[in-house]
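Lecture 7 notes: from sequence to structure.
We start with the chain below.
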Amino acid sequence: MKITIMGCGRVGAMLAGLLDADGHTITVLDTDAYAFRRLPATFGGTALIGSGTDEEALKRAGIQEADIFIALTQGDNRNILAVQLAKHVFNVPRVICRIYDPLRQEVYNTLGIECFSPTTIIARLMQEKIEGQEA
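Predicted structure tokens for the same chain:
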């Protein structure tokens, strides 16, 4: 699959490395070139400087051919804007978005945007640990 990842922080870089190792065609987009240092030395994909909220940067990243677009920056608003551009302007078949605010996550999920909230995931894992259940 052709996958575009917006955000090359710890999660974005690790995901890019894992998907690249599995044989997918990966493009990582970040506004800070220094962020690409997090990519594994074996990364065979493409790393591009640009914003996932900029249509021209998305075109340079090959968004028109992407099967999946994933937004993983630290900003909920940026992530939501980027996945909406990918989904509604470029018709990417599947978009996935990280949203820190659990309330927003629920709203966007009901609008058909696949979202996950690390806030909710970590809280539930901690609850399971505290209550003695296996994670």
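Points to note: The radius of gyration is 15 Å. The mean pLDDT is 94.
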